[in-house]
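Assess this today:

___
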Amino acid sequence: MRFSRTTLALLASFSSLTNAWGTVGHATVGAIGDHYLTAQAKTFVASLLGSGVTMSSVASWADDYRYTTPGRFSAPFHYIDAEDSPPSTCSVDLNRDCGGAGGCIVSAIANYTQRVNDRRYTLTNRKQALESSSTSSAISPNPCTPRPKQSAATRSRQMVEKDAGGYGAAVITSFSNRLIAAIDSGAYATQKASWVSCTDVGTASACALSWARDANGINCAYVLEVDETDRELDGAYYLGAKPYIEMQIAKAGLRLGTYVNNLAAA
């Protein structure tokens, strides 16, 4: 099935900056989002993605698309590069950090939110907007370094796979179910309401900015605050990063499901 760029784009936006966390991270965000969809939202998603197509199954679309010739323009939509001073201060300023001609993940979420329900766009465009949102929802810092490079991206992907127990459909299902249980009645039960306190599709830019600031704070709380010499998968850094990885993926999935519910109801 051929998916539209617009729907794909909004889904991808919801786990971007988890883009360094690989297919398992993306698909887990999508699977958690799928779990929290209302009946209305499931119908809405099916109308755009197609019958039987899940958000989890298309969650990596934007990462693949950005490396194609027609998709090169979308590279800046995967991150916001805060020009702050971690670990002493961590902040995100929209004018300072997203003022370039190419935009950033915050402006992309606002743009794709508008496109999903705008029938002036083709169904193909609206599909790809929704699909891109699943890549951007976490707006999460790479747990190895806040300025990801290829080696750091590889380590981050490996950390997610280690935490999840490998890769593949069965692993993604198990990992997402573990995080869903934590959201519903476990470690995140008392926090989950605050995670989705800003999911109004009418204030998409403000909400995306708040998510970016929340995620960027981890650079000061852990990423650049701790000793960076031990970055082995079995070392202290991985053990310290693991709770942040799990929490950010859980946040992204819950926000994705809630946000798409609101889109469907709009």
Observations:
- The longest helix spans residues 236-265.
